[in-house]
Amino acid sequence: MAKQVKKQQVENKPVEKGKVTYPLGKINFILMAICLLLIIIGFWLMTGDANVGDKFNENLFESSRVTTGPIIAFLGFVLMAFAILYRKKDNKPNDDNSDAND
Fold first, then answer.
1. Is 11 within the bounds of a domain?
2. Among residues 21, 28, 35, which one has the least CA distance to residue 85?
3. Residue 102 domain-assigned?
4. CA proximity to 62, closest of 83, 43, 46
5. Cα distance between residue 26 and residue 43, in whole Å
6. What percent of the chain has pLDDT over 90?
């Protein structure tokens, strides 16, 4: 019975001829751009001068290079997966299915 209800719901969706649907929407690309920006900022925070010759560079162990940068870059990568998988919910009521569910 559950298979029949699911099959009816799929068949009742109107398909417009000539309209192309893409797996990712505009909001996905916006979220992915924000995540890419976070990744770039995280890697930028990790950059800096290295040790040169006999002189020790104390900036090598700054908190922005060791902690903040990697955390921001990691959040960018994790949120990138969310941005790709995100699907906007349709809040439009479907009158065609209201009769079948009663």
1. no
2. 28
3. no
4. 46
5. 26
6. 37
pLDDT digits (tens, 9 = 90+) for 60-74: 888 888 899 999 999
pLDDT at 31: 94
The token pair that represents 76 in the structure block: 């960018």
Any domain includes 79: yes
Whole-prediction pTM: 0.65
Task: Identify the DSSP state of 58.
Answer: G
Give the chain's domain count: 1
In angstroms, rounded to a whole number, what is the distance separating the alpha carbons of residues 37 and 2?
Answer: 44
In this structure, what token pair is assigned to residue 44?
């930028």
- Residue 94: pLDDT band with limits 50, 70, 90: low
Print the domain residue range for 75: 23-49+59-88
